[in-house]
């Protein structure tokens, strides 16, 4: 049972890793709006199929989770492309962190709501988790289609002042994005690989907690499903709060010019990795 559960929980990332790398390139070619939207709505539709798949065979669940990973892998790279198109350079850290904190807030809501839904009789109990969040994702997709635009210049309701502010404060960044990327130099760069290893270490701990902590709380510590949901949400409540605080501090340091951009990034990356690394 444990091996099957591990396969089901981990199968999402088998698909995710295949699209997360080309996702940014595709977003630059076709625009980030539809990659983000399609990634979310495909995941939502597949989520609503999962209860029936679970009653059929766990292999079907694994296949669906891989497909969800393929869809979701497009979202975060495309999100960063959209951020680069919409935000001034000096507000970039704050924008990324506020948007990133939405992932933590989403985890909080999902874990708390999932515990309550699983213990209820609504739509059969635990299957209601997948139906409710699937419908929520579809509603979000409709709103996204109506309200989101790839670039500020495409937005029909943006003011001239807002548009000018964004363009002026991006400098020549958009022109630089169109330059040919020296991929060989990138792949041989020590700073690039240090960033990759740092991100790998953080995500190793993060996704183990995300995937396995609810199982640990129920199977080992024997918490109820409702209590499990609330306890599993605690790290993400703190994460969302501290993410916003750190981004404000980073942008403030950058505006004052008291530290180089490189040292700024190193400082906050180190602080962000020390605590989970020490306790992981």
From TrEMBL:
Q: Where is the Major facilitator superfamily (MFS) profile domain?
A: 1-280
Membrane-spanning segments: 6-27, 34-53, 59-83, 95-117, 129-149, 186-209, 229-249
GO MF assignments: transmembrane transporter activity
User: Per its UniProt entry, which superkingdom is the organism in?
Assistant: Eukaryota
Please give a single GO biological process term from the UniProt record: monoatomic anion transport
Q: Is Metal-binding found in the keyword set?
A: no
Keyword Membrane appears in the UniProt entry: yes
Major location (coarse): membrane
Where's it found, cell-wise?
A: Membrane
Sorted UniProt keywords = Membrane, Transmembrane, Transmembrane helix
Q: Which GO terms describe its cellular component?
A: membrane
The residue stretches assigned to a coiled coil in this entry are: none
Provide the membrane topology annotation.
Multi-pass membrane protein
**Can you say what this protein is called?**
Putative sodium/phosphate transporter
């Amino acid at each position: 049972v444990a091996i099957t559960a591990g396969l089901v929980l981990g199968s999402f990332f088998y698909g995710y890793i295949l699209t997360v790398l080309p996702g940014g390139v595709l977003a630059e070619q076709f625009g980030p709006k539809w990659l983000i939207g399609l990634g979310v709505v495909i995941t939502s539709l597949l989520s609503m199929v999962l209860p029936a798949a679970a009653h059929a065979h766990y292999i079907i669940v694994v296949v669906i989770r891989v497909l969800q990973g393929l869809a979701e892998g497009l979202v975060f790279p495309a999100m960063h492309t959209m951020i680069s198109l919409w935000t001034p350079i000096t507000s970039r850290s704050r924008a990324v962190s506020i948007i990133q904190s939405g992932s933590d807030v989403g985890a909080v809501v999902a874990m708390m709501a999932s515990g309550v839904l699983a213990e209820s009789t609504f739509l059969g109990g635990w299957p209601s988790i997948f139906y409710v969040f699937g419908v929520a994702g579809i509603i979000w997709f409709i709103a996204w289609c109506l309200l989101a635009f790839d670039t500020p210049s495409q937005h029909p309701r943006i003011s001239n002042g807002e548009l000018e502010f964004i363009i002026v404060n991006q400098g020549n960044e958009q022109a630089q994005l169109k330059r040919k990327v020296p991929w060989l130099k990138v792949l041989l760069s020590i700073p690039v690989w240090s960033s990759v290893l740092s991100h790998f270490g953080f995500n190793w701990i993060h996704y183990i907690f995300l995937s396995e902590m609810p199982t640990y709380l129920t199977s080992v510590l024997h918490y109820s499903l409702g209590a499990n949901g609330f306890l599993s949400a605690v790290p993400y409540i703190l994460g969302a709060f501290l993410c916003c605080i750190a981004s404000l501090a980073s942008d403030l340091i950058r505006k004052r010019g008291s530290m180089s951009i490189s040292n700024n990034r190193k400082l906050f990356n180190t602080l962000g990795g020390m605590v989970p690394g020490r306790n992981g």
